[in-house]
Amino acid sequence: MLVYLSLIDQDEKKAKFEIIYSEYKNLMFYVANQILGDTRDSEDIVHQAFLKVIEILEKIPVAACPQTRSLVVTIVERKAIDLYRVRKRGRLLPLDEENFHVAMPSQIDSFAEGSVIASAIAALPPRYRELLLLKYDNGYTVQEIAGIMDMSEANVKKTIQRAKAKLQTLLEEMGVEV
């Protein structure tokens, strides 16, 4: 709560915010968690909601009343629904390789033994390998890959182009006609 209070300059606003915080923090978390079903995301949403409350604090006449309760619940609901929609569209993915469906190095070694192409893909630099697997093995579009990898679409296209050229070179060195 000290972080929030440091954002408020007037004592009367600080007192009003302290009441709002103590009255509604658990309710706000409950509402966010009902929508999102994730504790960490719910905590983030409550934090964002309190920042919004600080922005509009002068417009809140009474700290503990049904109107204020309705206001904070509405703020939390809107923020949670926004995050839910972003998640539903698939733009927000946890950052671990299992969620990208990118083969882990141990998996690459196991299938590299069975095929020349797989072994050439395994020999690619990790960035090239990841983009090729996302594009051709998992079927993601360039736009989706750009969102996943936090790259521009042009950068994704160019990196895939370079990865394909490198793969072609590796395959030719292995004696495979391309």
Order of H and E elements? HHHHHHHHHH
Low-confidence stretches: 92-113
Helix content: over 70%
Radius of gyration: 25 Å
Query: Number of helical segments?
Result: 10
Number of strands: 0
Q: Return the average pLDDT rounded to an integer.
A: 80
> Which range does the strand content fall in?
under 5%
Instruction: Describe the largest sheet.
Output: none
Shape: rod-shaped
Distance between the termini: 63 Å
Structural class: mainly alpha
Write the topology of this structure:
Elements: H1 2-6, H2 11-36, H3 39-55, H4 66-89, H5 97-100, H6 105-112, H7 116-123, H8 126-137, H9 142-149, H10 153-173
In short:
The chain has helices spanning 2-6, 11-36, 39-55, 66-89, 97-100, 105-112, 116-123, 126-137, 142-149, 153-173. With 178 residues, it is an all-alpha fold.
Give the key terms.
10 helices; mainly alpha; single chain; 178 residues
Describe this protein's structure.
- By secondary structure, the chain is mainly alpha-helical.
- It has helices at residues 2-6, 11-36, 39-55, 66-89, 97-100, 105-112, 116-123, 126-137, 142-149, 153-173.
- α2 packs antiparallel against α3 and α9 crosses α10 (153-173).
- Residues 92-113 have low confidence and may be disordered.
